[in-house]
Design goal:
By secondary structure, the protein is α/β, with parallel strands linked by helices. The chain folds into three domains: 97 residues, no CATH class; 238 residues, no CATH class; 105 residues, no CATH class. Helices cover 65% and strands 7% of the residues. It is globular, with a radius of gyration of 25 Å. It starts with 5 loop residues before the first helix and ends with a strand.
Length: 478
């Protein structure tokens, strides 16, 4: 288990399923996706019970963790179950996206092309591999987008209620999903202008959102003190920083989009500009979903691809609308100019699709490769004496706790070299997943780099693994 968060989500979902206690006792994220994963254990258990794998619910194994990103599960099907649920919501988001855009633009080609971009997006694909709330936010965010389109076009009360419920479910997947309710409020006033203050449909939508959130994250009320404490912890985490994922947030997001999603960002920004100048309501409505969310997350110190993910579908729509507008202009031209235009549009589409597709293939291939966290395990079992006392940090190889005396740390520099020798540790295992984030930004993390270098000098390096450019170092203390 290399992912740092999956094990926690699995443990909570299992606890809900095994005990029937709906209180997750965890509110760093809302509980909708945890409940959905808990429900997935029902068919999993029934099938396993009928095949003789489980006699009761407690037979379903829990993850074994030594440190963050360092653990194993005795039945891989437990993790495959949760990842299958994430993949289903990822696929569902693509289908929902197409139908939402068919309603917005009445153009199936815009819907198909946008859905294609979401389907091959490396950021969306990697998130759909893991047990996490991110794919759920995308799914329910698109549902909110669809319902907001219906409000924009028809203004019926039932669509306001649907949009509110969808927005509440998005917020119940991840707190920042509540931002998708803001475009609904703006659309209300775009439709009714000043009369929107007297029209109470928006209020009904917000009430529906609140109820949807409370129904799917009920212990935010019943355990309010813990809920509020964890909510503040998460807010402080994003505001204060996370080593290796902090600083230059706006620049980092722009750079990430260009490197992973190709020229989508550039084309989308052009369409946003044109849309506001020409007052194209389709583009303005879509841009609201991107701009509001993107501006919000860009204000935080912490930045990562999964936080950016919910904004991506709306970039894809804007890109598709821009290309569609160029296509419409081309087909009106004379034959020779039209021919050149077709070549240009084909090149443009290729520049959008091919880099995304190639990056997605690379991303998936990387997940199949065996890196040093795997190759180091066999060497440790063959070369380190059984019973040796070993300390390791996050993202290290999993060391058999039945054969060795193992203790995990967030990072090994949290203790001094003298502390490890004084507590009679024989070996220390350092992992690139932890130490490299500091060496990548030596000016920002000067103290941490000095601490690691000091640790490396104090002990004897006995083995270095660099398989698939992932470094694992093993040091002997005596």
């Amino acid at each position: 288990m290399f992912n740092p968060d999956e094990a926690t989500y699995v443990e909570i979902s299992q606890q809900i399923f095994k005990t029937g206690d709906l209180n997750p006792h965890f509110f760093r994220y809302p509980t909708l996706f945890l409940y959905i994963n808990a429900v997935a254990y029902i068919p999993y258990y029934l099938i396993g019970n009928s095949l003789g794998f489980f006699e009761n619910r407690s037979d379903i194994p829990s993850p074994q963790r030594i440190a963050m990103g360092t653990g194993i599960i005795s039945k891989p099907s437990v993790f495959l179950l949760g990842r299958f649920v994430s993949a289903l919501f990822g696929i569902g988001a693509i289908l929902l996206f197409y139908f939402a855009l068919l309603r917005l633009t009445r153009n199936p080609y815009i819907g198909l092309f946008s859905a294609l971009l979401l389907a091959i997006s490396p950021t969306a694909i990697i998130s759909s591999h893991y047990i996490s709330p991110d794919t759920f936010v995308v799914f329910f965010g698109i549902l909110t987008f669809w319902a907001t389109i219906l409000v924009f076009q028809e203004g019926k009360l039932k669509y306001y209620i649907l949009a509110g419920i969808a927005g509440g479910l998005t917020a119940s997947s991840k707190y920042n999903g509540a931002l998708f309710l803001i475009p609904l409020i703006i659309v209300h006033f775009m439709r009714y202008k000043r009369a929107g203050f007297k029209n109470r449909k928006n209020d009904v939508a917000l009430i529906a959102a609140g109820l949807a959130f409370l129904v799917t994250t009920p212990y935010s009320i019943f355990e309010f003190d813990l809920f509020f404490k964890h909510l503040l912890l998460e807010a402080r985490h994003y505001s204060k920083g996370h080593p290796g994922s902090e600083g230059n947030t706006l620049f980092w997001y722009f750079r990430y989009l260009l490197s992973h999603e190709g020229i989508v960002l550039i084309l989308a920004v052009i369409e946003i500009t044109i849309g506001f100048i020409k007052k194209n309501r389709q583009s303005i409505l879509t841009a609201l979903f991107f701009i509001i969310y993107f501006v919000f997350i860009s204000r935080f110190v912490v930045r990562n691809e999964r936080t950016l993910l919910p904004a991506l579908p709306y970039l894809f729509v804007l890109t598709a609308i821009f290309i569609s507008s160029i296509w419409k202009s081309i087909i009106k031209q004379k034959s020779r100019i039209k021919y050149i235009g077709f070549i240009c549009i084909a090149i443009l589409i290729s520049l959008v699709v091919i880099p995304q597709f190639v990056q997605s293939i690379k991303t998936n291939m990387n997940l199949t490769r065996i890196d040093s966290r795997i190759t180091a395990v066999k060497w440790i079992e063959e070369n380190i004496p059984e019973g040796a006392k070993i300390a390791l940090e996050s993202y290290s190889p999993y060391v058999d706790t039945d054969k060795f005396d193992v203790k995990g740390f967030f990072k090994l520099i949290d203790q001094s070299p003298e502390w490890f020798t004084g507590n009679e540790f024989h070996y220390l295992i350092f992992s690139q997943g932890m130490f490299q984030r500091f060496f990548d930004e030596p000016l920002r993390y000067k103290i941490e780099v000095e601490s690691y270098n000091n640790m490396f000098k104090c002990f004897t390096l006995i083995k270095v693994f660099t398989n698939e450019n992932y470094e694992v170092r093993i040091y002997k203390t005596q």
